[in-house]
Design brief:
Blueprint: H1 2-26, H2 29-47, H3 49-60, H4 69-98, H5 102-116, H6 121-138, H7 141-167
Helix pairs in contact: 1-2, 1-3, 1-4, 3-4, 3-7, 4-7, 5-6
Length: 177
Protein backbone atom coordinates (compact mmCIF):
# COMPACT_ATOMS: atom_id res chain seq x y z
CA UNK A 1 0.00 0.00 0.00
CA UNK A 2 2.97 2.33 0.56
CA UNK A 3 3.79 2.15 -3.15
CA UNK A 4 0.19 3.16 -3.95
CA UNK A 5 0.35 6.06 -1.48
CA UNK A 6 3.58 7.40 -2.92
CA UNK A 7 2.55 6.98 -6.58
CA UNK A 8 -0.89 8.55 -6.20
CA UNK A 9 0.44 11.19 -3.81
CA UNK A 10 3.08 12.33 -6.27
CA UNK A 11 0.53 12.45 -9.09
CA UNK A 12 -1.84 14.49 -6.91
CA UNK A 13 1.02 16.75 -5.84
CA UNK A 14 2.00 17.40 -9.44
CA UNK A 15 -1.61 18.11 -10.42
CA UNK A 16 -1.81 20.81 -7.77
CA UNK A 17 1.87 21.86 -7.70
CA UNK A 18 2.52 22.57 -11.36
CA UNK A 19 -0.37 25.08 -11.70
CA UNK A 20 0.65 26.64 -8.38
CA UNK A 21 4.21 27.15 -9.59
CA UNK A 22 3.07 28.49 -12.96
CA UNK A 23 0.58 30.83 -11.30
CA UNK A 24 3.23 32.07 -8.89
CA UNK A 25 5.65 32.74 -11.73
CA UNK A 26 3.13 34.37 -14.08
CA UNK A 27 1.01 36.53 -11.80
CA UNK A 28 1.72 39.11 -9.19
CA UNK A 29 -0.05 41.47 -6.85
CA UNK A 30 -3.80 41.85 -7.17
CA UNK A 31 -4.15 39.31 -9.99
CA UNK A 32 -2.65 36.62 -7.80
CA UNK A 33 -4.86 37.60 -4.89
CA UNK A 34 -8.02 37.45 -7.04
CA UNK A 35 -7.34 34.24 -8.94
CA UNK A 36 -4.86 32.42 -6.73
CA UNK A 37 -7.36 31.06 -4.22
CA UNK A 38 -9.89 30.04 -6.87
CA UNK A 39 -7.35 28.25 -9.04
CA UNK A 40 -5.59 26.87 -5.97
CA UNK A 41 -8.59 25.23 -4.34
CA UNK A 42 -10.03 24.04 -7.66
CA UNK A 43 -6.73 22.34 -8.49
CA UNK A 44 -6.63 20.84 -4.97
CA UNK A 45 -10.03 19.24 -5.48
CA UNK A 46 -9.00 18.00 -8.93
CA UNK A 47 -5.74 16.61 -7.52
CA UNK A 48 -7.50 14.83 -4.69
CA UNK A 49 -9.69 12.89 -7.09
CA UNK A 50 -6.65 10.62 -7.05
CA UNK A 51 -7.65 9.67 -3.49
CA UNK A 52 -11.02 8.45 -4.70
CA UNK A 53 -9.43 6.61 -7.64
CA UNK A 54 -6.80 4.96 -5.42
CA UNK A 55 -9.31 3.80 -2.81
CA UNK A 56 -11.59 2.40 -5.51
CA UNK A 57 -8.66 0.63 -7.20
CA UNK A 58 -7.61 -0.86 -3.85
CA UNK A 59 -11.18 -1.98 -3.14
CA UNK A 60 -11.83 -3.45 -6.57
CA UNK A 61 -8.40 -5.02 -7.04
CA UNK A 62 -6.53 -6.42 -4.05
CA UNK A 63 -9.55 -5.92 -1.78
CA UNK A 64 -11.71 -8.22 -3.87
CA UNK A 65 -14.52 -5.67 -4.04
CA UNK A 66 -14.45 -4.80 -0.32
CA UNK A 67 -12.62 -2.17 1.71
CA UNK A 68 -13.27 -1.12 5.28
CA UNK A 69 -13.53 2.53 6.26
CA UNK A 70 -10.30 2.86 8.27
CA UNK A 71 -7.96 1.29 5.70
CA UNK A 72 -9.61 3.40 2.99
CA UNK A 73 -9.30 6.53 5.12
CA UNK A 74 -5.65 5.72 5.91
CA UNK A 75 -4.89 5.29 2.22
CA UNK A 76 -6.48 8.65 1.51
CA UNK A 77 -4.59 10.37 4.32
CA UNK A 78 -1.30 8.96 3.08
CA UNK A 79 -1.95 10.26 -0.42
CA UNK A 80 -3.03 13.65 0.97
CA UNK A 81 0.16 13.81 3.07
CA UNK A 82 2.48 13.08 0.12
CA UNK A 83 0.57 15.47 -2.15
CA UNK A 84 0.77 18.19 0.52
CA UNK A 85 4.55 17.78 0.74
CA UNK A 86 4.81 18.14 -3.06
CA UNK A 87 2.56 21.23 -2.82
CA UNK A 88 4.86 22.80 -0.22
CA UNK A 89 7.89 22.08 -2.42
CA UNK A 90 6.11 23.59 -5.44
CA UNK A 91 5.26 26.74 -3.46
CA UNK A 92 8.84 27.11 -2.31
CA UNK A 93 10.18 26.61 -5.85
CA UNK A 94 7.68 29.03 -7.37
CA UNK A 95 8.26 31.64 -4.69
CA UNK A 96 12.02 31.29 -4.97
CA UNK A 97 12.04 31.55 -8.75
CA UNK A 98 9.61 34.46 -8.90
CA UNK A 99 11.63 36.56 -6.49
CA UNK A 100 8.38 38.05 -5.23
CA UNK A 101 7.55 38.71 -1.62
CA UNK A 102 4.17 37.03 -1.13
CA UNK A 103 3.86 38.10 2.50
CA UNK A 104 4.41 41.77 1.63
CA UNK A 105 1.89 41.67 -1.24
CA UNK A 106 -0.64 39.82 0.92
CA UNK A 107 -0.16 42.18 3.88
CA UNK A 108 -0.56 45.24 1.67
CA UNK A 109 -3.72 43.84 0.06
CA UNK A 110 -5.26 42.99 3.44
CA UNK A 111 -4.49 46.46 4.84
CA UNK A 112 -6.04 48.07 1.76
CA UNK A 113 -9.11 45.88 2.20
CA UNK A 114 -9.48 47.11 5.78
CA UNK A 115 -8.99 50.71 4.64
CA UNK A 116 -11.67 50.25 1.93
CA UNK A 117 -14.02 48.87 4.60
CA UNK A 118 -13.68 52.15 6.49
CA UNK A 119 -11.23 51.15 9.19
CA UNK A 120 -9.09 54.13 10.22
CA UNK A 121 -6.89 55.46 12.99
CA UNK A 122 -5.72 53.23 15.80
CA UNK A 123 -7.64 50.20 14.55
CA UNK A 124 -5.95 50.42 11.14
CA UNK A 125 -2.55 50.97 12.76
CA UNK A 126 -3.09 47.91 14.99
CA UNK A 127 -4.08 45.83 11.97
CA UNK A 128 -1.05 47.08 10.00
CA UNK A 129 1.19 46.05 12.92
CA UNK A 130 -0.38 42.56 12.89
CA UNK A 131 0.27 42.29 9.16
CA UNK A 132 3.87 43.41 9.65
CA UNK A 133 4.32 40.71 12.31
CA UNK A 134 2.85 38.18 9.86
CA UNK A 135 5.25 39.33 7.14
CA UNK A 136 8.23 38.88 9.43
CA UNK A 137 7.03 35.47 10.63
CA UNK A 138 6.41 34.30 7.06
CA UNK A 139 10.05 34.96 6.20
CA UNK A 140 10.98 32.14 8.62
CA UNK A 141 10.69 28.66 6.97
CA UNK A 142 9.77 27.11 10.33
CA UNK A 143 6.59 29.23 10.20
CA UNK A 144 6.05 29.30 6.41
CA UNK A 145 6.35 25.58 5.57
CA UNK A 146 3.71 24.35 8.06
CA UNK A 147 1.44 27.25 7.04
CA UNK A 148 1.69 26.16 3.41
CA UNK A 149 1.12 22.51 4.34
CA UNK A 150 -2.00 23.37 6.30
CA UNK A 151 -3.49 25.15 3.26
CA UNK A 152 -3.92 21.88 1.40
CA UNK A 153 -3.86 19.00 3.88
CA UNK A 154 -7.32 19.63 5.42
CA UNK A 155 -8.83 19.48 1.92
CA UNK A 156 -7.20 16.06 1.50
CA UNK A 157 -8.54 14.92 4.88
CA UNK A 158 -12.06 15.94 3.87
CA UNK A 159 -11.82 14.18 0.49
CA UNK A 160 -10.40 11.09 2.24
CA UNK A 161 -13.33 11.03 4.66
CA UNK A 162 -15.89 11.32 1.89
CA UNK A 163 -14.20 8.79 -0.39
CA UNK A 164 -13.72 6.25 2.42
CA UNK A 165 -17.32 6.63 3.55
CA UNK A 166 -18.68 6.18 0.03
CA UNK A 167 -16.38 3.41 -1.16
CA UNK A 168 -16.70 1.21 1.93
CA UNK A 169 -20.10 0.32 0.47
CA UNK A 170 -19.32 -2.31 -2.19
CA UNK A 171 -22.56 -1.44 -4.01
CA UNK A 172 -21.34 2.13 -4.62
CA UNK A 173 -19.70 2.08 -8.06
CA UNK A 174 -19.21 -1.70 -8.00
CA UNK A 175 -16.30 -3.32 -9.80
CA UNK A 176 -17.03 -4.38 -13.35
CA UNK A 177 -16.84 -8.11 -14.08
Amino acid sequence: MLKTIIAYGIVAGLIVGVPLTLLTLSMSGDHMMKWGMLVGYASMLLAFTTIFIAIKAQRDGPGGGVIRFWPAFGLGLGIAFVASLVYVAAWEIGSGLSGGDFAAVYSHAMIEKQRAAGVTGAALARYAAEMEAFRKSYANPVFRLPMTFIEIFPVGVLVSLIAAALLRNSRFLPARG
